[in-house]
């Protein structure tokens, strides 16, 4: 009997002992025909279940370089943060999915030995698996995406490429490295260590520029559905990232998007992201619908 109970509880963690606390579930996986391997993820599920006729909106939160699925709930301690914000009425009950993508930079990489078509897998297989397994608001109006550092790059890239999927995007300390030019001083960086082969081995500048979110912003001008954007960067972050986030904010405004940029105290680490995720979720929560049905 005890063995059965332990098995039932494995992977389930109540984020607090308080009434109404959500559940964080680890070590889950979504089948991905695109990748030919499962996509690992952890998920926060609110309590109680959504009322009749309503569904849970979903926010996907992406990890940074060297990160993994569930980082937002372990390093980020996001479960209790969500519990408090929901209990205090600052955000609506929502599912938060924290998938793992390795050091992929969330791009499609067809190279032998590469991490595969990650952007395609996330925007098709992962979303389908979540909407099939949970009572989610399975529509654009019920879905947002965000991320930190490399995950900020990924969240913006996927939203630029798929505005029909996400109503809003959040980038915290986004590693928004600008496109490179000939004789760019960054070509002397340890690009193999930074980009982990995501843009070819050896590093291919043309491929990096083609995949760069700065070169995808203009697509939004033609989009029928316009996502909204929240950018945050700490004042003690890397100077080049501060400049790049300011520039991205300007590019979004020039493209006619609603963009909010916040520069506040903080460095490129978890205590900053634990603090800065709260106003970001408070911003996105009113934009998320809980009324759309499955696969609408």
Description:
The chain is an alpha/beta fold and about 300 residues long. Helices cover about 30% and strands about 20% of the residues. The chain contains nine helices and eleven strands. The strands form two sheets. A nine-stranded mixed beta sheet has the order 1-2-3-5-4-8-9-10-11, sandwiched between helices. The longest helix has 16 residues, at about 120-135. The protein is globular and about 60 Å long. Mean pLDDT is about 95; it is low at about 1-20.
> Any guess at the CATH architecture?
3-Layer(aba) Sandwich
What structural category do the secondary elements indicate?
alpha/beta
Number of strands: 11
Biggest sheet record: 9 strands, mixed
- Considering the protein shown, what is the CATH homologous superfamily? Alpha/Beta hydrolase fold, catalytic domain
Helix content: 25-40%
Order of helices and strands: HEEEEHHEEEHEHEHHEHEH
Short characterization:
The protein has 296 residues and is of the alpha/beta class.
List its salient traits:
single chain, 296 residues, alpha/beta, Rossmann fold, 9-stranded mixed β-sheet, two-stranded antiparallel ribbon, 11 strands, 19% strand, disordered N terminus
What is the topological layout?
Blueprint: H1 2-9, E1 12-14, E2 23-30, E3 39-45, E4 58-62, H2 71-74, H3 78-87, E5 95-99, E6 108-109, E7 116-117, H4 118-133, E8 143-148, H5 150-161, E9 168-172, H6 191-195, H7 205-211, E10 228-234, H8 239-254, E11 258-264, H9 270-284
Parallel strand pairs: 4-5, 4-8, 8-9, 9-10, 10-11
Antiparallel strand pairs: 1-2, 2-3, 3-5, 6-7
